[in-house]
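For the sake of transparency, this paper describes our internal protein records without simplification. The record that follows is passed on verbatim for readers who wish to inspect the format:
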Amino acid sequence: MARTPPPVDAQVATMRARITAELEQRSAGRGGNELVEFALGELTGAARLGEVATRAGVSERRLRTLFSRDVGLSPKHVARISRLRTVLSLAGTREWAAVADDAGFFDRAHMISDFRDLMGVPPAAYLSGRRPGPAPCLPLSRP
């Protein structure tokens, strides 16, 4: 006795389930952790988020979502911290304008502004030991 093929609707549902499972498996294979690790390495330089997202094969929005979920900070904030760390490692080795350029800032004024925002004092004051006093942590608020 010959087997009758399943109805077309059942075949379509089966194919849709297989395709969905394959896409989910591929997404998991290149999941958030791998993408975030890749982006963290790329954002330590002067790369822009759009460029990093393109190289990672995802949209900027997806990359921002993964950062918020996995890191707890925005990619922009991670890049700012990375540039600040570069400033700290290069400080005193050359002129501030060259340090700003090497750290990926547009100019010295932007470097000083970012440094002050994150550290509470400009870089020269920080290096001379004039650091801000302790401040209480603010509660995190999530939208």
Observations:
- The mean pLDDT is 80.
- The first helix runs from residue 8 to 29.
